[in-house]
Amino acid sequence: MKIVFAGTSEFAVPILKVITSQTNWDVSLVVSEPAKPSGRKNLLVDSPVSKLAKELNLNLLTPNSIKDIKEDIFKLNADVLIVVSYGQILPKEIINLPKYKTINIHPSLLPLLRGASPIQTALKEGLTETGVSIMLIDEKMDHGPIISQEVFLINEKENYLTLEFQLAQIASRMLIRDLPEYFFGEIKPQEQNHAEATYTKLIKKEDGLVNWSKSASETYNQWRAYINWPSVYTFFKDKTNTKSRLKLIEIEVTNINQKPVGQVFTDESKNIYIACSEGSIKLIRVQPENSKVISASEFLNGYKDIIGQDLN
């Protein structure tokens, strides 16, 4: 089987690894998003998939638009184009190039959670199950017929990083099991129930700002969803009485609810809490602006004036 693999994010990496290590499929081409500036020095950094493709000495292209390499894909005469968290909308002329069209691996139970952030949305909404869908791509977003699906039950301790890894493992297993059956006609793709479709949004940096008027459970779900990016954060007044960002690197939910919403307080053991509308958030590790990640106790030693502050 000759394939073209289009992917960009970390979710796609284990899937490409399994294809190259556990099948005899010919990965004729890997397509990924171009390297992007990162860090304070804005140095160009390859996508996770690009890095893996280079490590495996695979043929790699990183066009600004996949339309730019239409002829390259055409000349390969591939059996299928596999798309996993690529980041670009594919035009019809690309979708229909391979013999068996183009398939997509999507980390949700379609038609639920279509769009750019299905894993984050499942966590932020406190869902107890999600899954993986393998589908044929058509011209609409996450709209095509389903080849196969598998359900995954979400543990309340799962966060974006752990859930992404779990779903990628499921997707890898499904792909090598179900794709050959699709090719041989043993699996007939089924139309989605479009009336039940729900949609996710493109996440922005400001989505990480905590609204302390929400419950501790809602805030914890926000943290679970955005732990990788944009992270969750609040603002406090630092030693110079300047508004400063504080990232919440690790937190816990508690039932303590004895202070006004948004107020910072401690207990007898000097644990730091922030009051929510229901319960409170206990800080475990934080990162003050322009500083390294530190424990909550280290933070308290350096910023004692935060106690009693209203973070609303």
TL;DR?
The chain contains 8 helices and 15 strands. The protein has 312 residues and is an alpha/beta fold. The model has no long low-confidence stretch (mean pLDDT 95).
Could you walk me through the main structural features you see in this protein, from its secondary elements to its overall organization?
With 312 residues, this protein is an alpha/beta fold. It has 2 domains: 2-196, 3-Layer(aba) Sandwich (Rossmann fold), CATH 3.40.50; 205-306, Roll (Methionyl-tRNA Fmet Formyltransferase, Chain A, domain 2). The chain is built from 8 helices and 15 strands. The strands form 3 sheets. Strands 5-2-1-6-7-8-9 form a 7-stranded mixed beta sheet. Strands 10, 11, 12, 13, 14 and 15 form a 6-stranded antiparallel beta sheet that branches. A two-stranded antiparallel ribbon has the order 3-4. Strand 1, helix 1 (13-22) and strand 2 form a beta-alpha-beta unit. The mean pLDDT is 95.
